[in-house]
């Protein structure tokens, strides 16, 4: 009997692994083969005279003020930082936020203050949130809103309207090219941690990089396109397909492109190459690329803005147009990108968002049907058992095991995601946790096999039926059907091992 259970359980586990493997899509990212040639490790912009002619960071005392920016149907506040007693009309920069709420008192504080102390007037508006949500946002609409800030800054006394540019970081680097395309009002562009590819591709690339850095098992990586590539439950997320390239190909302003080599979320090599290629379409040769060693998404190390970045940014802005294409064009730390950020395969129809959620909810409702029927019968005073003695225990185990496997999988993914985003590794958590999830899945399969054999053996012996009542039949069918669905879901996300 034990041999039969062990062999059957092994076969079912392998079958589930096979089902998960072939249910698609797979994940096999293309290795990054193009390279970018860094000319020097010194990030200083242009010849030594460029830095000598520019006001250094810390030259001026900074004064702050808050203004109101009128938008279409709304208004936002913005903080202006100005260099006190700086002579003549000064260049200006409008900062465009990355993902999130984007308040001026929290975002770009160090960058804006450093530039202002070097003689550049900076403006950080609050992000407009009534048209921005996790499910819905428009980068074109956001660009039009931020252009209102550009207009206001250009009209500010002491600002040279012909020298006002925009600075976009992360998600903001999808917005800034829309602002700059065919727009002479934008004098220059600074792109920091630019994703370059559409958001869905960027998300898959970032998740892959984070998970690999954390050391997750290879089988778990196939979940990336199955989660990132699907239509999300409830619709929305149309912006996930936004393509910034047509706008980059219409930028004719000088462009400074900046990455930190400690930023695993961005395609640091591919991004620079793509922007350079796109600017060539616009016949724009005014570009500069800088890589800062160990810097993160915001060009910070240990949460502090890299001093060389603040220096180089100020020098580049104040030195325009001379610094627009000055050597060295590409400088700093040597970047490394393992895989290409590329289009993500879509799941098949049965694994799209709404159906996936409906399947999980339906499976959970089916599993809890038995306990609900038992509770109702007890409240009515019915003491008759719904199930045969030999069936009840494995049925409870398979139901509880299936739910436990699903919960453990979700918890494991959340913990690993948190570790990955914070660049932390822990083999006990990553490998041990995954082993625990798989053991829960295998134990559930064993309980299911025991249940099936007991039902079949009972029928062969003509013993008491597995379900003694109609309620028992519903409970048995619900538990078996719901648990099977949950196990298939676990298989889809790699819980069960494959032979390959």
Which features would summarize this protein structure in a list?
500 residues; alpha/beta; Rossmann fold; 2 domains; 9-stranded mixed sheet; two-stranded antiparallel ribbon; 11 strands; elongated
Total number of β-strand segments? 11
In which range does the helix fraction lie?
40-55%
**Please, what is the CATH homologous superfamily of the largest domain?**
Alpha/Beta hydrolase fold, catalytic domain
Radius of gyration equals: 29 Å
Order of helices and strands: HHEEEHEHEHEHHHHEHEEEHEHHHH
Structural class, judged by helices and strands? alpha/beta
Précis, in short:
This is Dienelactone hydrolase. The protein is of the alpha/beta class and 500 residues long.
Describe this structure in words.
With 500 residues, the protein is α/β, with parallel strands linked by helices. It has 2 domains: 2-23 and 348-492, no CATH class; 48-332, Rossmann fold (3-Layer(aba) Sandwich), CATH 3.40.50. It has helices spanning 2-22, 48-53, 109-117, 139-154, 172-180, 199-214, 218-221, 223-228, 245-248, 268-281, 307-319, 353-379, 389-421, 427-461, 470-492; strands spanning 62-71, 74-83, 90-96, 121-125, 159-169, 189-192, 255-260, 287-292, 300-301, 304-305, 330-332. A 9-stranded mixed sheet has the order 1-2-4-3-5-6-7-8-11, sandwiched between helices. A hairpin with a 2-residue loop joins strand 1 and strand 2. Helix 1 packs across helix 15 (470-492) and helix 4 crosses helix 5 (172-180). The radius of gyration is 29 Å and the shape is elongated. The mean pLDDT is 92.
């Amino acid at each position: 009997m034990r041999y039969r259970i062990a062999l059957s359980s092994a076969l079912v586990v392998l079958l589930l692994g096979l089902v998960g493997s072939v249910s698609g899509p797979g994940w096999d990212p293309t290795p990054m083969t193009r390279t970018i040639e860094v000319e020097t490790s010194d990030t200083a912009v242009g010849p030594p005279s460029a830095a000598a002619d520019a006001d250094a960071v810390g030259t001026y005392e900074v004064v702050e003020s808050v203004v109101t920016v009128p938008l279409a149907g709304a208004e936002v506040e913005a903080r202006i930082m100005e260099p006190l007693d700086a002579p003549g009309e000064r260049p200006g920069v409008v900062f465009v936020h990355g993902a999130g709420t984007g308040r001026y008192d929290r975002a770009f504080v160090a960058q804006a203050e450093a530039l202002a102390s070097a003689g550049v007037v900076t403006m950080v508006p609050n992000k407009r949130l009534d048209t921005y949500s996790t499910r819905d946002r428009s980068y074109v609409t956001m660009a039009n809103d931020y252009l209102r800030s550009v207009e206001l800054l250009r009209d500010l006394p002491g600002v040279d309207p012909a020298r006002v540019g925009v600075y976009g970081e992360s998600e903001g680097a999808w917005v800034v090219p829309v602002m700059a395309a065919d727009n002479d009002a934008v004098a220059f562009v600074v792109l920091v941690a630019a994703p370059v590819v559409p958001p869905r591709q960027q998300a898959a690339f970032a998740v892959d990089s984070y998970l690999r850095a954390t050391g997750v098992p290879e089988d778990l990586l196939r979940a990336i396109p199955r989660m990132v590539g699907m239509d999300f439950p409830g619709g929305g997320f149309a912006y996930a397909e936004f393509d910034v390239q047509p706008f980059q190909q219409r930028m004719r302003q000088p462009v400074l492109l900046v990455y930190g080599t400690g930023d695993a979320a961005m395609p640091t090599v591919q991004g620079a190459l793509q922007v350079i290629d796109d600017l060539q379409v616009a016949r724009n040769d005014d570009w500069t690329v800088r890589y800062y060693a160990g810097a993160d998404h915001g060009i910070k190390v240990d949460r502090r803005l890299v001093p060389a970045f603040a220096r180089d940014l100020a020098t580049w802005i104040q030195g325009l147009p001379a610094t627009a294409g000055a050597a060295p064009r590409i400088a700093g730390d040597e970047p490394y990108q393992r895989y290409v950020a590329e289009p993500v395969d879509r799941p098949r129809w049965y694994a799209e968002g709404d159906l996936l959620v409906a399947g999980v909810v339906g499976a959970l409702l089916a599993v809890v049907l038995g306990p609900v029927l038992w509770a109702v019968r007890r409240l009515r005073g019915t003491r008759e058992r719904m199930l045969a003695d030999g069936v009840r225990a494995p049925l409870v185990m398979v139901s509880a095991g299936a739910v436990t496997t699903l919960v453990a999988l979700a918890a494991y993914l959340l913990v690993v995601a948190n570790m990955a985003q914070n660049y932390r590794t822990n083999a006990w958590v990553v490998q041990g946790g995954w082993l625990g999830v798989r053991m829960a899945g295998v134990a559930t399969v064993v309980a299911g096999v025991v249940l099936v054999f007991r039902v079949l053996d009972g029928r062969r012996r003509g013993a008491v039926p597995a379900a003694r009542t109609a309620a028992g039949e519903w409970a048995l069918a619900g538990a078996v059907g719901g648990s099977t669905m949950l196990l298939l879901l676990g298989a889809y996300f790699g819980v069960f091992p494959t032979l390959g």
